[in-house]
Amino acid sequence: MKLVIYLLVIAFCLTVFGCSNCDGENPTVKLVNNGSGKADIQIKTSGGNTENINNVLVGTVSSKRSFDEGNIEFTINIQGVNEPIVYNLKVSSCRDYIVTINADNSVEGSSSERD
C-alpha cells in the first residue's frame, strides 16, 4: 500500500513540476491589432530574411509565425498613420510571443514559456 501511495505522489509531483516539452524549438510570434486601422507588417528576422503579414484588420489576430532565436524587427504601417512604427523584439527558443498594436497605436510585446 505504501508503494502505491509513493508512486501516486511521484506521479503528482511530475505532473505539477514536470519538465517542459519544448526542446530548443523556435519561438513563435502572433500579432494582435487593437489599433486605429488596418495594419501591414514587415518582419525582418534574425537571419536577415523578410516576411510580410498584410491586411491585419482591427480587432483581429494573425496566425502564429515561427522564427529563429534572436532579434526581430517589425515595421508596422497602420492605415491612416503617416509614419511606420518600428518595434524590435529579442526572441528566445521555447517561448511564444504576442506583439500588440494598442488603441493609441503604440506597440508592446509579451511572452510566455511554451509548455
Brief summary of the model shown:
The protein is 14% helix and 46% strand. It is mainly beta and 115 residues long. Strands 1, 4, 5, 8 and 9 form a five-stranded mixed beta sheet that branches.
What does this structure look like?
This protein has one helix spanning 2-17, and strands at residues 28-33, 39-44, 50-56, 60-61, 65-66, 70-78, 85-91, 95-101, 107-113. The protein is mostly beta strands. The strands form two sheets. Strands 1, 4, 5, 8 and 9 form a five-stranded mixed beta sheet that branches. Strands 3-2-6-7 form a four-stranded antiparallel beta sheet, with no helix packed on it. A hairpin with a 5-residue loop joins strand 2 and strand 3. The longest helix is centred in the first third of the chain and has 16 residues, at 2-17. The two termini are 33 Å apart.
Principal-axis shape equals: elongated
> Which class of secondary structure composition applies to the elements?
mainly beta
Q: Helix content range of the residues, please? A: 10-25%
Mean pLDDT: 87
Succession of helices and strands: HEEEEEEEEE
Separate helix tally: 1
User: Runs with pLDDT <50, length 5+?
Assistant: none
Major sheet: 5 strands, mixed
End-to-end distance, in Å?
A: 33 Å
Computed Rg: 19 Å
Percent range for β-strand residues: over 45%
- What's the count of strands? 9
